Amino acid sequence: MATPMMTCFQERVEQVIERLHDVDAVKFGNFTLKSGIQSPVYFDLRVMISHPDIMVEVSKLLWDKISTSKFDSLCGVPYTALPIATLMSAANDVPMLIRRKEAKGYGTNKLIEGKFKEGDSCFIVEDVVSSGSSILETAQSLSSSGLVVKEAVVLLNREQGGVEKLDANGIVLHSVFTMTDVLNVLSKRGKMKPDMVTTVAEYIAANKFQPNKEILSAKPKINDVLKYSERAAMCTNELSRRLFGIMDKKKSNLALSADVTSSKELLQLVDKTGPHVCMVKTHVDILEDFNQEVVEKLTSLAAKHNFVLFEDRKFADIGNTVMHQYSGGVYHISEWADLINAHAVPGPGVIHGLKKIGASKGRACLLIAEMSSSGNLAKGSYSQDTVKMAEENKDFVIGFICVSKVSSDPTFLHMTPGVQLEAGKDNLGQQYLTPSEVIGNRGSDIMIVGRGIYQAQDPALAAKQFQIAGYDAYMARMAEAMIV
Ligand code: 5IU
What we know:
- The protein has 484 residues and is an alpha/beta fold.
- The protein is built from 20 helices and 18 strands.
- About 2% of the residues have low confidence.
- The protein has two domains: 198 residues, 3-Layer(aba) Sandwich (Rossmann fold); 256 residues, Aldolase class I (TIM Barrel), CATH 3.20.20.
- Strand 3, helix 3 and strand 4 form a beta-alpha-beta unit.
- The strands form four sheets. An eight-stranded parallel β-barrel has the order 9-10-11-12-13-14-15-18, surrounded by seven helices.
- Helix 4 runs antiparallel to helix 20.
- It binds 5-iodo-2'-deoxyuridine-5'-monophosphate.
- 5-iodo-2'-deoxyuridine-5'-monophosphate binds next to strand 18 and helix 19.
């Protein structure tokens, strides 16, 4: 039997659901959702901000759900949950944190605003949850800044896998009401026509997350469930085996793009960030004071910190020319770079030329299947033909530069540039995705980060944050592949 307190809470929940319906935050009809799915019910909880009485009551209900939990601060997921978290914080004298949605790109470049110390616990507040991705992304940002996130609270649970996804990532989700509650309350209170009640009930049933059904029907994507160590064991190429081994041992899928222009700065940056990376990517031709000593020191740092050295030379000429560019000139790249990359545009001759120089030295190559810059032409059939070219040259080509999963072969590496802790772009066409998007959603193996690290106030700390965010996203991807 319900206790009086529970009954009272329940009554308040029902009133809020009815109020939300009255102000058109819940609508019935025929709607096309962002995902393209047709839905007979539509939630627009943002309209709450125009109704202070609803905002206050919602914040109280959310607080009542979590008041027995212990935490140091609250963090609302932008945007609607931000003012709700503010109300909860002020009414209950609990500090609040704000996760920046856009990187500032100047000043302290802080990701989390507000005062906290490493190890503090933070409770996430959200208005509505479907798959749980926004809460997970917020949790990853918070934990990469040293906070501990174990719980989240949401007003409306759409029952579409959010609870399970967050649970797989160690986060308990509390909700004030579910989509089924909305249907029950509004039909009970005569706010819906009987045929609409049936339509919505059918829609909820059809879209409800059913883990068991999905485990049986979904075939996990192979390199989403294989661990780095398992993939290392599958590789015949010595360098890819070593690289997967480093990723496993160092718990890092981070490649630093060390695009600085002085040797001193380069060596200092690499030494500081070395413990957090599995790879350092260079553009030696931008160094104003290049000499052989620099690459000798770089290779010593690679041994000291156990990472792979990748010269981002992007060879793009006929076989005979790239042989000279790779082995000779000023840089003698083949003498020190473990890994290089090439455009597929000249045809397989470019790989054959590079292989002639590099294969006997244990070197390997990536093909550029896609690029991160806006308007680039590496897409569609060009990308597909690049993958085919790699498959035909697996003894020397070990993977791709790409922004999506281009091959399901678990021995191929997918490496993605254009990564910052917040999505965005620079003013010359570079496009940024987040670690959780690149590693978690797109299934890439290694994220390449340049300015996000070397322009940070503390590059070692930034590298550590990216390392944690990238590795968390990899773990989340593995956990999700097990559920779905
Ligand atoms: N890089 C890209 N996009 C690409 C390829 C390479 O950004 O498609 I191919 C390189 C350029 C730069 C690094 O060296 O990756 C990204 O640096 P920032 O994180 O500073 O944008």
